[in-house]
Amino acid sequence: MTKNDSLLPLKMLLFSFHATNTIIISFLPLYLKHKGLDGTEIGWVLAVGPLASIFAQPFWGYMSDKYKTVKRILLICIMGLLISSVLFFQMNGLLAIILMGAVFYFFTSPIGALGDSLAQRRSDDLRVSFGSIRMWGSIGFATSSLIVGEVLSSIGIQYMIWPYLFFGVIALLVAFRLTDVKVESDPIQLKDVKQIVTNKPFIIFLGIIVFITISHRANDSYIGLYIAQLGGSESMIGLAWFVGVASEALVFALAGKWFRKYHPLIFIIAAGIIYSGRWFIYSAIDDPIYIIALQFLHGVTFGVFYLSAFNYITRLIPKLLQSTGHLVFFAVFFGVSGIAGSLVGGALIDSFGGGTLYAVMGCFSLTGTVILTLYHLLPYGKAIKRAQ
Would you name any one GO CC term (predicted)? Predict the structure, then answer.
């Protein structure tokens, strides 16, 4: 089997899973609004996902490391995704939506992290760029946002379950063909996780980037509602996501050419600066077409930030605990930050409008960038050598 053949199922898994993820991130707020929920209630529902992920991601990461398999854990989670999503989309009352949403996110939230963890290990094994594999997730996200946005504009937001299940079934089918990880060591014990909890550079780094990731997650949750507030349609929301994630895919695809030239923290700080400027500009916009035009900055911000941060924390944690460390990172990025972004963002957009929300996000991102710069200048920021 050639290198590309062995990676094809993994690329297809990333494509199809991120295609499902697009539907939830881009259109779930509008779907919940269609169900009769207001902005604050939508914020509560969106916060359930990050809350569930705080528990789910370290749990599934630990199980992956303990049993030395990513493939089998992915299969369990994707099966859970399909079953729980059918039930989740049948719920109507706020309490029922929240409770079923917790079950749904328990299975869905670790899939992206496990897929990226597997991609990182396979890229190391085969000596190929991680970005060249990960970009297929971005391509799936972009493709789905464009197609599904048009479809839902035609048939109605209430039918978003069908495209979601379509991509979910594809993810399950290709997961059976994955090449699993090979770890030549004894299974980890619960006491081994102490190596992550006591890793000061890792913990401090996660604490600092929360300021930036809160702003990112708030944008994920509310850019659709903000575009709708400014008079945009579902298809415009889909187009905005397509432009953003297409630029993200390009950044990942070209990572091998730019990524290893400087210390990862340099790229993370640069992304933080651009994040700040991006949110302040969005706060001043009064026509959704300008948001779409500026969405190429998503690739320059999230693409550079995520790739650099993922690489940085991979070097900070022992190889034996890679899945656990990666999913702890995800729990902070998409969990802790997601809760704060959803709850605070929902209250702000409800009370003051999207412009104020984005101005506050700009302040958060700028604060995180300044602290991260100081971290880079201090000894903890020197925890790894410049990439070779």
Answer: plasma membrane
pLDDT by residue (tens digit) across 25-43? 888 988 998 999 987 888 8
Token pair in block for residue 136:
């297929």
**What was the pLDDT predicted at 387?**
35
The b/e string for 147-169 (b: 16+ C-beta within 10 A; e otherwise) is ebbebbeeeebeebbebbbebbe
215, pLDDT greater than 90:
yes
Length of the chain counted residue by residue: 388
What torsion, rounded to 10 degrees, do the Cα atoms 325, 326, 328, 331 define? 180
pLDDT tens per residue across span 169-182: 999 999 999 998 77
pTM confidence score: 0.80
Task: Provide the 3-class DSSP secondary structure of residue 182.
Answer: coil
- Which residue type sits at 42? I
| CA–CA separation, 175 and 114 (whole Å) | 12
Q: Which residues of 56-81 are buried (b: 16+ CB within 10 A; e: fewer)?
A: bbbebbbbbbbebbbbebbeebbebb
Give me the phi and psi of 172, to 5 degrees please.
-65, -45
Dihedral angle computed from the Cα positions of residues 387, 207, 81 and 135, in that order, rounded to the nearest 10 degrees: -30
Residue 153 has pLDDT above 90, yes or no: no
- The single-letter DSSP state of residue 263 is -
Separation of alpha carbons 369 and 211, rounded Å:
8
b/e string for 300-321 if b means 16 or more Cβ within 10 A? Answer: bbbbbbbbbbbbbbbebbeebb
- For the stretch 257-266, pLDDT in tens is 777 778 889 9
Q: Does domain 3-382 have CATH number 1.20.1250.20?
A: yes
Q: CB-based burial of residue 14 (10 Å sphere; 0-12 exposed, 13-18 middle, 19+ buried)?
A: buried
> Is the Cβ–Cβ distance between 70 and 181 less than 8 Å?
yes
Q: How many Cβ atoms from other residues are within 10 Å of residue 90's Cβ?
A: 11
Question: What are residue 387's phi and psi, to 5 degrees?
Answer: -60, 140
Task: Output the six-digit token pair for 74.
Answer: 């992915």
Rounded CA separation 244/334 (Å): 18
Q: Which alpha helices (DSSP H) does the chain contain, by range?
A: 3-34, 39-66, 71-88, 94-126, 130-155, 161-175, 194-197, 200-229, 234-253, 255-258, 264-283, 288-294, 297-298, 304-316, 322-330, 337-351, 354-377
